[in-house]
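Budget justification note: compute hours in this period were largely spent on complex prediction jobs such as the one shown. Inputs:
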Amino acid sequence: MRVHAAFIPILGMAAATETSSAAPLQDALHAYGIQAWHIGRLWNFTLGLCALVFTAIVAVTLVALWRAPRSDARTPPDLSSLERPERRIHRTVAWAAGIATLGLLALLAADVFTSRALGRLPLQDAVNIELIGHQWWWEARYLDPDSSRQFVTANELHIPVGRPVIVTLRSDDVIHTLWVPNLHGKRDMIPGRTATLQFRADQPGTYRGQCAEFCGLEHAMMALLVEAEPNAQYEAWAARQRQPAPAPAAGPAGDAARRGHDLFLAKSCARCHTINGTGATAALGPDLTHLAGRKTIGAGMLPNDGSHLASWILDPQTLKPGVYMPVNPMRPDELHDLLAYLETLK
Amino acid sequence: MTAPHLSPEDAAQLEQTWRDPPGIHGWFSAINHKTISLRFMITTFVFFVLGGLLALAIRLQLAGPDGKVVGADMYNQLFTMHGSTMMFLFAVPVMQAVATYLVPLMIGARSVAFPRMNAFAYWIFTLGGMMLFLAFFLNLGPDAGWFAYVPLSSLQYSPTKRVDIWAQMITFTEMAGLMEAIVLITTILKMRAPGMTLNRMPLFVWAILATSFMVLFSMPAVMLASTALITDRLVNTQLFNPLKGGDALLWQHLFWFFGHPEVYMIFIPPLGFISSIVATFSRRPIVGYPAMVLAVVATAFLAFGLWVHHMFATNLPELGKTFFTAASLMIAIPTALQIFCWIATLWTGRINLRTPLLFVLAFFVILLAGGLTGLMLASVSLDTQLHDSHFVVAHLHYVLMGGAVFPLFGAFYYWFPKFSGRMLNESLGRWNFWLFFIGFNLAFFPLHVLGLQGMPRRVYTYPASMEWGTLNFLSTVGAFMIAVSILLFIINVLRSRRHGEPAGNDPWGAGTLEWSMPSPPPAGNFEMVPVVHARDPLWEPARLPSHVSGLANDYREILVTSVADAKLDHRLWLPSSSLAPFATALATTVLFVGSIFTPWAVVWAAVPVAIGATWWFWPKKDIVEQRTGSEVSPYEVQQ
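Corresponding output:
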């Protein structure tokens, strides 16, 4: 059961606009994966049935108002219903309640069938990711039976199109929720508990997700990008992630980067961050081994370019107040060197 | 039916007996149920307005992308305060406030049961609400959400006193809520006028009875939870700490075991408003009284089987979740049945289309839409997309505003003449209604779409690239329309209070007992306690006997009747006004607020609470003498 329909319009919306346009997608109405498609189909059915019921009841109420004669406070009350029971009215109400019950049973059945369909995603050849929620960023560990093939990244997932993904959800502090609406519904990340979410992207693209459970001060600034790409491209990306950070180039071209590397280790950076292949191995903040390959910084908050990165390093507290990264005052030349180094972390 | 009258001297004495004493001392010792209830209603309305102002600040912040009106910290306080205020300080208590006014009038009683406890509950509620807002103005407003999920609300992640304030506010309001429930249940079951069997009880009273039982069974869960949260924070109990063998999900179960019934505690009393208003303005009794009663009772029971649908995104077993889907869908059946009965009543009635009915008709659009989106949220799979998005914000406001606030305003237009003796202005009322109705839909309909477009709840801002700006702006415009309509309502009330058209006993030609007495009602409600012969005693031709005589006028004597058939059981002497409930409430406030800072407050502040309660129950010599003096030996009666 594969979905080839690349773009599955729900609600009959036009299929024109995007796939890989500038704004990343974050939309439950447009499915780009089989799981979101199943839920979207259930949405269509439920919306249709509910719209029908809504229209019918409002229409009957309006007709009742339109047909009933007018009165005022002095109109004597009509007590005829006390003498002879209004059988016809009672029967009508009973029929309406019966029909409503049938509609509800239909909704229940549709829900059960959708749950079953969601549970039947074929899981052969799956990509296993452990996603850990932190205040306010995401740590992603790509699992592999061969531990040398495992790697860690942050705030950006890459997944292969057409292969299932099993995400194991954990949290290190408070409750977070993973929600990438174009691919699947959401799942809580509860400390002390483990949950999994299984989905598959059926169309390449950048899908944006956002933490959906209120998780404290910067809950609004906890986004996650999911890059779905063809399998070969994904495998190339994964192979790159498994490599340690490249050493700064030899010779004068690499001077600035080398000074930046030394600064990174000497300043407070290395107390929180890891860069594989260097002495920085702390795990309090995001792994920066391949920072330069990511599209955003600050958990989806800012584009990852030199100027944003510079202002983030100098003063993350202004950009994202309350974030656990401290203010890092440094001289302009130091900042320049540090940025030169970070730009080599492809 | 014209109410039988006492002689002018007896009536004056009765008034004197039941009236609250004058002066400042009298103001604080008042226990008449109408006095307390009016204060209670005004207090909850003030909280409603405050909560609404918080909502305007929220909407201003979200009106455009990258909003800079408030920062993240203030925004988190704003939505936590808004939710907590509306749920705990407005929606549930306002229904109890209206009920403590109307229930005795509807069932032919001179007072509520336990009038001093009723006053105590009011003071506790007010002091708790004041504490919350005082904390907010001191920048100690709770900021972990009105649901205060652990571990975010634990000491580690919320180290300031903000969460403690929230948890103690829960203790205050739930204590008041529980006491009001006891007052109302006892009043309804034991103080109905003779002849008012359960089968003749107005649907509003049935709704309040069902609600009060729900309060009794659900509020202990949240009090337990909030107390456990405080002990976790104050004395390190670790009940919710997964690292020490506690469980974060336990909180959610306890909270929603209360939180879901709470929705129905807010929603069921308005069903009673609607039944009263639809009957009066269709000029006929409601179609299917037994079905309506059973539907209310069924709703109250089923409401306890739904709580897990707030937790569909957790890793609970899928089969268990499906059970809660089925239960959540099932509860739509009794609600649908009631809607059909009301429509049938309108269909076969003769309609007097006044403001109260307009507000009730909004229910048929707004609550209906909210109920239907509720069916969507009841589905496990759909909920995984909709949960914690702005779709839920839209849904809950459609349910709570459409299901409770619109009927509540209808009820206010309907009963204001009884409370004040004057009518509210009809054309201002229509402006109030239409602005509210249009503003509401403008404010909340777009949020459905925003939720589907992926906008999560409780975010203090969003980037422009998400393209959520336009709909958010529309929503903010709608919110301000609602604010204007509420302002019109306040103007209407203030103006009509003095200059409104005099109402007389029964301005709407209604059928229930509260319309048999002058407006506003005398202190003892009924000059003579009526004997009830029908469901709508003012509509159906009177029968004999029409009233009870022989109750004392010179002290607060009431009749106690049997639970099912309201047969005469015995006479009871209610206590007179006293300063003790207020003093005890102050002492209790010291205990609760103190225990935010030290567990020892529970020990030491218990002393003044005990002193207050002892004073409260200390028998007064002159009253005991008067009471024993009026007793008659059965032997004398036989002779």
